[in-house]
Amino acid sequence: MTDELERAYAGLDALAQLTDALTDPRPAHADERPLYVGWGMLATVHRQAAAVVLLHRHGLGHETAPNRRSMLEHAAQIWWLAEDGTDAVESMNHALKYKQQKLREAADDSGISYDATVADAVQAAVLPPTSAQTYNQIGHLLKRIGPPLHAIYAGESMLTHASLTSAERFFSGPGTDTVELLTTPRYPDDAPGPDTRAPYIALVLTWFAMTAFNRLLSGQPWIDALQRIAQEAGIEDSAT
């Protein structure tokens, strides 16, 4: 096992211990909803990280691209909640209403029967407008946080979805006399691929999510621990 992987496993364990010890979270602001929504997002990040580690240990690091992409989405939403608070929650409600309407339309078009109680309630809800709604688009949100995150997300999406990028990992030699068909993915030799670094990527995304969530907690109790974990794990920027 490489030093990076050892640090990644140790860092993820330390972050999980911090989360497990949070038995009585106190919100930093009067509106408690950002904290509770953020907690749901953070729990998802931790479970996705566990899935990344499990798959990687079984030689399936390449297949963790959807998990890594999901982690980035959820971590970004936690950051948004920490930045915009109530506006972010209200914006998420707008997105939920829109998606529920699309789900209802798809079910109606398919002739699927369902209990319309929830769908009717969602449709009837009157939501206050918010200027933050544009950040329901993940691309807009990631660009706001930092353009490199948007670039990483675009790359992960190309490995997650059916694309030429995902397909070409499984053949080599096009345009030459010999084309080799592969059953395991192959990445260029000049740089480690995300398949080998998946646990470290999961660590960085989990740390980022917890750094954002810490801002939703009264007194930001994780500041010192997060800085220590970042230093021990080799995360370059340990600012909280």
What's the gyration radius in Å?
20 Å
Give the strand tally: 2
End-to-end distance, in Å?
29 Å
Low-confidence stretches: none
Number of helices: 10
**Element pattern in H and E:** HHHHHHHHEEHH
Strand order of the largest sheet: 1-2
Strand content: under 5%
Any idea what the shape is?
A: globular
Average pLDDT works out at 92
Helix/strand-derived category reads mainly alpha
The percentage helix is 55-70%
How would you characterize this protein structure?
The chain is mostly helical and 240 residues long. Helices cover 62% and strands 2% of the residues. It is built from 10 helices and 2 strands; from the N terminus they run H-H-H-H-H-H-H-H-E-E-H-H. A two-stranded antiparallel ribbon has the order 1-2. A hairpin with a 7-residue loop joins strand 1 and strand 2 (180-181). Helix 1 packs antiparallel against helix 10 (223-233), helix 3 (65-84) packs across helix 6 (138-145) and helix 3 (65-84) packs antiparallel against helix 7. It is globular, with a radius of gyration of 20 Å. The model has no long low-confidence stretch (mean pLDDT 92).
Question: What distinguishing features does this structure have?
Answer:
single chain, 240 residues, mainly alpha, two-stranded antiparallel ribbon, 2 strands
Topology record:
Blueprint: H1 3-20, H2 33-57, H3 65-84, H4 86-110, H5 117-124, H6 138-145, H7 147-160, H8 164-167, E1 171-172, E2 180-181, H9 198-214, H10 223-233
Antiparallel strand pairs: 1-2
